Amino acid sequence: AGCFFGSRFFDLTTLSGWPLNDEAWIHHLSLYGSFAPGDPLLMAGVKLPPLFFWGQGLIYRCIEPSLAALWGFPATLSLAAALLSYPAVRPFLGHSMALLFCLGMGTSFWPMYIGRISVSPVILLPYEMLLLWVWGRTKSDKGISEGIEGWGRCSFLGALTGIGFYTFTSWASVADRTP
């Protein structure tokens, strides 16, 4: 966990490159976007789902806007994806393969790269790991858990799948594959 944490937060605010244009308007929408009940849910001219903007806006309400706040949120999401990967795949894979998967999620290019850019698709990977973890907890060796507990878990899985449409536009392909 220390290696995963250090690789995502080491020299986070050093300018290896200026913030991207996309980061600038996402930063602006997160800072000044109105999240009133009557406002449209799809943000900006390209109609992006709002979950990332809401999360980044919450960070800006707690921490003064800076490069650390701009890039800290995606770095935290990247770390969450790496740490959630083991419990997410453990019900489907053996211990060794789940550990290998977690190591890959913690050290491979894309999971680490998404922690360095503040754009809305960054939220997709940790959300997928969360959904996979809930799915694995819902599924048991005998099939879906029975009774009130099983019904509650299935309902929670369905609610998470529905909320996933607020993550990114490609969520429909993920939701299509969720049982």
Compose a concise summary of this entry.
This protein has helices at 2-9, 21-32, 51-62, 67-89, 95-107, 109-113, 124-138, 147-163, 171-177; strands at 139-140, 143-144. It is mainly α.
Can you give a write-up of this model?
- The protein is mostly helical and 179 residues long.
- Helix 1 (2-9) runs antiparallel to helix 4, helix 4 packs antiparallel against helix 5 and helix 7 (124-138) runs antiparallel to helix 8 (147-163).
- The longest helix has 23 residues, at 67-89.
- It has nine helices and two strands; from the N terminus they run αααααααββαα.
- Strand 1 (139-140) and strand 2 form a beta hairpin.
- It has helices at residues 2-9, 21-32, 51-62, 67-89, 95-107, 109-113, 124-138, 147-163, 171-177, and strands spanning 139-140, 143-144.
- Helices cover 63% and strands 2% of the residues.
